[in-house]
Amino acid sequence: MVIYIPWKNDEWDAQDYINNLSFVATLATKVTEWLDPQPDDHILDLGCGANGQGTVHGIDTSRSMVNAAWDLARRYCLVPGGTFVFEMGGQGNIAEARALMLSAVARKIKAAPDALLETWFFPDEAWIRDMLEVKVGGFKVERSEMEWRPTKIDGEGGLYGWVKLVGGQLFGLIKSEARREEAIQEVVKLLEIVCRRELENEGGEVGYVMNYVRLRVIARKL
Predict the structure, then answer these.
(1) Are 93 and 213 in contact (CB under 8 A)?
(2) Which InterPro entries does its entry note (predicted)?
């Protein structure tokens, strides 16, 4: 039996994202440099949030996220010679948190962890190249890289806010609000152990560092 995690249009709230995951956009400057947007460019931003010049069109599954970024969002088709540049979680991304969330939720709903069909997907470079150049076709990958990037969780909600937002859809499988909160707290407490770091560049202050893995790709439309 496979348990499907429902995809809700407004699962992520824009303000919660700003409070707890704003570092995602802040740390995405490298892929923006790869894009090198120019004043006359038209940019389709999948997953919303972009910097630089040009015309940007934001598309996201969450209406709240879209409205927070743009008053109006519309599609713009990628033409031959156009550039597809993106950054996403790569293989191994937030592995410790992912394992703990799957385990906690599976036990609460009395299911096997491998029966939960996750909304997360973290591929490697080979998978992306095969998908763009062979299975989907019509693209040529010009550059790609995977980077292990330990990232301090420093949003207003701290580690709890990060866990609740990132794992929101997974925790949503637990129908009881009380049991859902128990699962979130369980994951937070364990992450406080495995992700605890003394941050030397911050005077030895204790913080929580998640093992992010970033996959960046630039592909040309043929």
Answers:
(1) yes
(2) SAM-dependent_MTases_sf
Hey, CA dihedral for 12, 17, 20, 21, is it positive or negative?
positive
Indicate the length of the chain as a whole number. Answer: 222
Buried b (16+ CB within 10 A) or exposed e, 46-67: eebbbeeeeebbbbbbbebbbe
Number of H helices, E strands in the chain: 8, 8
- pLDDT digits over 53-82, tens only? 455 555 566 667 666 655 443 444 777 888
Domain ranges of the chain: 3-221
User: Who contacts 116 (Cβ-Cβ below 8 Å, separation ≥6)?
Assistant: 2, 3, 5, 102, 105, 106, 170, 173
| pTM for the whole structure | 0.75
Instruction: For tokens 């204790």, name the residue.
Output: 206
